[in-house]
Amino acid sequence: MSPPPTQGSAADTETAATHAALFEQLVSGHAQMVLTFLGKLPDPHTGEPAEPDLTAAKIFIDQLDMLQVKTRGHLGASETRLLERTLSTVHGAFLECAKALNSQAT
Which helix (H) or strand (E) covers residue 39, if one does? Predict the structure, then answer.
């Protein structure tokens, strides 16, 4: 059995790069789900925008909010900016959709 990689090794660098890419995919995937549930992106199954589902969108927004709280101080600058920009975008889209649905109901 080989010894574990030492700090700063090529394996550590590769692992960090993999984790950074996975983090970006996670955040981007959640943002796409929010925008799909808000009817801003086409449903992948039908190709048509779905009827907005604020409850489903809020679940993914809440998960992104939780991720921001739980990872505070443990992310790199680019990961922090990605999460902040994504949250700003999805919060804005949610409010816009909620206002539109509210005005349609009245």
Answer: none
